[in-house]
Amino acid sequence: SFELTQPPSVSVSPGQTARITCSGDTLPKLYAYWYQQRPGQAPVVVIYKDSERPSGIPERFSGSSSGTEATLTISGVQAEDEADYYCQSSHTTDPYVVFGGGTKLTVL
Amino acid sequence: DVNLVESGGGLGQPGRSLRLSCVASGFIFDDYALHWVRQAPGKGLEWVAGVSWNSGTIGYADSVKGRFTISRDNAKNSVYLQMNGLRPEDTAFYYCAKSTDSYLEVAADYYFDFWGQGTLVTVSS
C-alpha cells in the first residue's frame, strides 16, 4: 500500500533550522501538505501545495519538494514550534488520502 | 469563522455501534467535501472516510471498509460517521475535517483547511 515516510523525531536548538522530510513514490506527481499538531489540539496546516504558506503562518515555515521527497523547513526555530508534524498527500488509487507517520520536533 | 463541532463519542463495546456527528458553520457547507480523520492515543493521523459535496462519491480506508458509513445532510450542515462492528483498534480521537475541494477524487490535490476539536471513541468491554 502507498506510504509516506517521515523520520520519527527531529531535535534542534532554538534559533537553528529544522528540516523534516517526507518520502513517497507519488510525490513527483502530487502535492505534499504539512500540518502542525500541538499536544491536545487539532492539526493546523502550515504548508500547502508543497511550498505555499497559509495566511497567519509565520514566514519561518517553508516547504519544498524534489523527486520523491518533500521537505518542511522551519528557520529560526522557536520554543512554540515544538509539536508533531505530519505530511499528507493524495493517492493515485483508493484510499484517497494518506498521512505520513508524523515527526516529533523537539526544541532543545 | 469556520467551526466544526463533533459529538457522539464515548465508550462502545466491541461489536456494537456508535454514531458520530459533526455540525459545521461559517462556510457554504454544500460547496465542500467533508472527511473523518482519527488518531489513536499517542499515535499518528489516519484518514478514515470522505464524502463529496453531493454524496456522489464516498471513500473509506481499508481498515474501516464494510463497517463504517459516512453520510451528510446538507440541509442540516452535518456530516455523520456510523460505526458498526467496533473493534478495540478503533479507539481514537475522531476529527471532522473540511476539504478545500468539493469532490473526492484519487490523485487530486486537496487538503484539510479546518478541523474540529475531535471526539474520543473508546472501544472496550
Describe this structure in words.
The complex is a heterodimer of chains A (108) and B (125). With 108 residues, chain A is mainly β. Chain A is built from no helices and nine strands. The mean pLDDT of chain A is 94. Chain B has 125 residues and is mostly beta strands. In chain B, 0% of the residues lie in helices and 49% in strands. Chain B has strands at residues 3-7, 10-12, 18-25, 34-39, 45-51, 58-60, 68-73, 78-83, 92-99, 112-115, 119-123. In chain B, the strands form two sheets. In chain B, strands 2, 4, 5, 6, 9, 10 and 11 form a seven-stranded mixed β-sheet that branches. In chain B, strands 1-3-8-7 form a four-stranded antiparallel β-sheet, with no helix packed on it. Chains A and B meet through strand 3, strand 7 and strand 8 of A and strand 5 and strand 10 of B.
**What is the gyration radius of chain A calculated from CA atoms?**
13 Å
Main beta sheet strand tally, sense and closure of chain A: 6 strands, mixed
Structural class of chain A: mainly beta
Number of helices of chain A: 0
The end-to-end span of chain B amounts to 40 Å
Q: Which ranges of chain A are low-confidence, i.e. pLDDT below 50, for 5 or more consecutive residues?
A: none
Strand content of chain B: over 45%
Strand segment count of chain B: 11
Q: Mean pLDDT of chain A, rounded to whole units?
A: 94
Q: What is the subunit organization of this protein?
A: heterodimer
Largest sheet of chain B: 7 strands, mixed
Q: What is the average per-residue confidence, as pLDDT of chain B, rounded to a whole number?
A: 95
Order of helices and strands of chain A: EEEEEEEEE
Helicity of chain B, as a percent range: under 10%
Strand content of chain A: 35-45%
Structural class of chain B: mainly beta
Distance between the ends of chain A: 36 Å
Strand/helix succession of chain B: EEEEEEEEEEE
Secondary structure tally, helices of chain B: 0
Uncertain residue ranges of chain B: none
Approximate shape of chain B: globular
